[in-house]
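A further point concerns the way the authors explain their paired sequence and structure data. For illustration, here is how one protein appears when written out as sequence plus structure tokens:
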Amino acid sequence: MESGTTDPQKKTLASRRGQGGGRSCQVDADKWETWRDHFQNQPVQHWTSNQLADVFEQLTGIRYSHSHWCSLLRHRQGMYYYKPRPCDYRRADDAEEQLRDRIKATFDALQAMGYDLERVKWGFADEVAAQLHSNNARFWAFEPHLSRVVNTDRGSQSFFGFYGINAVSHLVDLADGKVPAIQQALLSVKAQQTDCTALVVFWDNARTHKSLETWGWEHRIFFVPLPTYSPDLNPIEQVWKSVKRWLNQTQFVKELTDLSNLFQTGFAQVKDQLSFTASWWETYREQLSWYHPIVESNLSQ
């Protein structure tokens, strides 16, 4: 190549690097399809903006500005940008099938013992801790880099929650996570129910939970343990997420008593919404075919 000349490919790349607004460089559909196939044939399903852009640059010699590239990904390629839901590598591949079997076994056993399933109340339980201060909420403002008055103390309050499906949902402050505290919380949940011959609780495999099997039978509280490393199979996790999001947007929480009251208020706002169970219900409705009160319209509330 003669001195003073420029490689045409590099010239094209340089002229298009950082391109943002205005008319986009024309890239034929075949190049887009090749680029898309490159990623869809990989075992991974999530990529960074730069990973996607690097391959596109290799195929076309074009490097768009970050904002324009993200716009193309979203609007032209129909891609989504989100924080992936974590899935533990130890989670069993047949976790959903395990839970189907446990649901069927539990309610078949209750029916065999003479329980009227329409009078059996059931729902999802879990413990959760809320912090006095959590700095993960985003806000709109007319000025950049403004401070927000918060309480930076490291105090927290633990709760036991029950998200009822055909039952009354209930939230209890926990002094600690030991067995006696969990027992009292469960009895408090059961006391909230009316026309209840038995209570069925779906929850995880925490050590304290496993130790309550015999005690539960004595109090007509029966447990369905979720498959290990499968928090996604407990809809109350979505309830906690919603309550914490609302709590994080509260301007100032000074005392633990304020935190407790606010968390109770947030829980009360969402506890009757069945939309948190929509996908769960679609997966397990066959095992709960005897249960009729849930109708499709309720799941969108």
Q: What stands out?
A: Residues 1-6, 8-22, 294-300 have pLDDT under 50 and may be disordered. The first helix runs from residue 8 to 16. The chain has two domains: 8-76, 95-300. Residues 8-76 form one domain.
